[in-house]
Amino acid sequence: xxxxxxxxxxxxxxxxxxxxxxxxxxxxxxxxxxxxxxxxxxxxxxxxxxxxxxxxxxxxxxxxxxxxxxxxxxxxxxxxxxxxxxxxxxxxxxxxxxxxxxxxxxxxxxxxxxxxxxxxxxxxxxxx
Amino acid sequence: xxxxxxxxxxxxxxxxxxxxxxxxxxxxxxxxxxxxxxxxxxxxxxxxxxxxxxxxxxxxxxxxxxxxxxxxxxxxxxxxxxxxxxxxxxxxxxxxxxxxxxxxxxxxxxxxxxxxxxxxxxxxxxxx
DNA sequence: TTCACATGTTAGAAAACATAACATTTCGTT
DNA sequence: AACGAAATGTTATGTTTTCTAACATGTGAA
Lengths: 128, 128
Known about the structure:
The structure is a homodimer. By secondary structure, chain A is mainly α. The first copy, chain A, contains five helices and two strands. The first copy, chain A, folds into two domains: about 10-65, Multidrug-efflux Transporter Regulator, Chain: A, Domain 2 (Orthogonal Bundle), CATH 1.10.1660.10; about 65-85 and about 90-115, no CATH class. Chain A has helices spanning about 15-20, 25-35, 50-65, 70-80, 95-105, and strands spanning about 40, 45-50. Chain A has a two-stranded antiparallel ribbon. In chain A, helix 4 (about 70-80) packs across helix 5 (about 95-105). The two termini of chain A are about 15 Å apart. The structure holds a DNA duplex.
């Protein structure tokens, strides 16, 4: 009975994701357009979302509520994806550029990091 | 991260359920027509399935594979739903009638009960 | 063979979703 | 105050998905 769902499996149509996240279709598509999520597509080109996608959307929503903008969230994700390149080759954006960007966003009230990682989006708001 | 999904929440469109169960839309609708499942409906009348519905469909599929027919499966469910009425009022079908029906179906190779209950349909075939 | 059950197939209508364009709101900046 | 950019709303139009209903087919039991 206690199934750990394969959270990457594309199962949910956008209508359900709208309910789960309280986001509009417009918002969800906009976030995809800006590469914050990449939901799967059916053969007929309809978006199908995984539980991970829903978590990501909830996280995005939180960050936006905290005053971050799309670009800022994107940067956070880019950082998150390359945590091991401590002395690696320079990215497309210089470190100073990146820091400047983050600073701009974070001066409002957001605190992007908690020591050790990000707050995970949590579907348990809806499931139990 | 370990979310216990609310398994009764209608989340899945029929196309996904078809993939998960390897049943055709025709089959799924037929089982509903015969009251083996009762998926939710959207405002626009589209079926939306819960994880429990998927489990039920997998169970139905198993029973059919074992030689039961729809009527037999229905009886099993009806029995399952009233386990406490040991001396209750007679149902719409008499006990003998019911036993006869079951016997008819089960003489093939099916064994409807395992001691203590039914085999639960298990979504872990697809999730982990 | 015949009949009933389970499923396949097709047609036509409606719902859901897609993209794209333009409008609106909200803020920070000038 | 006006401007410009970001995020979202709104509308139009086309395609995909799902619906019901009807009829066809395959298969096993009588």
